[in-house]
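User: Could you check the structure of this?
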Amino acid sequence: MSKSSTILALCGLYLLPTLVWAENWPGFRGPSGDGQIAAGRLPVEWGSEQNLAWKVAVPGVAWSQPVVWNDRIFLTTAVADDQPRPDSAPQGRGRRPEGRPAEGAEPQGNGEGRPRGRAPGGTEPPEAVYRWMVMCLDRNSGKVLWEQVAHEGRPTISIHRTNTYASETPVTDGEHVYAYFGMTGLYCYTVDGQLAWSKDLGSYKMTLGWGTGSSPCLYGDRLFVQCDNDEQSFLVALDKQTGDELWRVERDEKSTWSTPYVWKNKSRVELVLGGSKKFRSYDPNDGKLLWELGPMKGRCSATPVGTDDMLYFGVGGGPAGLGPLVAVKAGASGSHELPKAGEANEAVAWLVDKAGPPMASPLVYEGCLYVLEQRGGIVACYDAATGQEHYKQRLEGAKAFTSSPWAYDGKVFCLDESGQTFVLAAGKELKLLGTNKIDDMFWSSVAVAGDGLILRGLNQLYAIEQP
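Assistant: Sure, the predicted structure tokens are below.
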């Protein structure tokens, strides 16, 4: 090889990671927790025979979203002998990727003749021995680089038939991977698979034995865990290097399943937590309450999302049906009551009644707010500034929406539980650009790896890339 060829080859090797790994996907819904992909050359069409780079089977059952750092994919799972597998839930009775209880589960049971809203066998944990695992896969091939058993033993709580014992999405900072398994514990591994520390945060009863689903999140040197349950709810901040507790806030809440959201707005950085009673914002440095808003009526499963100016959230499900969809102004402070529909107050910019997200977290993109409903595969689009409804329509052929939507290049992507991804043109009018299909069951949200998508189905992990 000539000297010039050698230089060119070395330059190519040097530049390749920069081009391929332009952006990591370190936690639930990506680097900003909002499902938006700013750049890249992502595929917009795929299928079982199209733009599928690889697929691999993953042991066990889990709804946790994969996370990505450079050329590594990290994911969690729970494995047991003769393990029950979730089946397709009736319309309106699915679960979102982090293991939220089924929307509308109380009124009509679960289609298997079991007590409504309960796990198979009631609220008692199973006798089976489970292995809670953390895995690392090669981004280019799907090959397993390492796997570790974080804990082995009987579960301390039961789960709903549509939940799993590994529904919480892990989070990484490129040095460590933090895997939270709800009432089974919190585990920190190096990216090379060495256990750095672990922590038992306790085991508490969840509503009707549905299990857990709230994922951890990182900000600076702190790891945050929201543990809302039916006995002793709390928010805790831990030193990410050591696992030492930095502060803890008791919460007047029962079981919820949403993930804490770090809201970086024009006024400050806030840690926002959903709740079935109130939504609350905390100072991530010391846990001081910044504002609270309520009363909420409904089940809190979806995670908030925000812009520089406003925060968007809502509740859905339960006997009362869908709750409110709310926009909170940046800089809010103090305790506030929800205004009536169509009204505003010092903290709330607008409120739309009976429009809250039941499972999938909302998406704000190019001036519009998108909310996916489970019943009938409905997508709703609102003006992000005013709350005005642009459209609310069922996508023909859509099944239950549990996975959270994502946006890229002027398009909105909605993945239903049957593996259909509906590609919509972003904007005030509903325009269906196409539909992509993979034959598997999907409740986990998408992960992005450079110029590719990582989709986790019940049976396989799929890497989607353009040639």
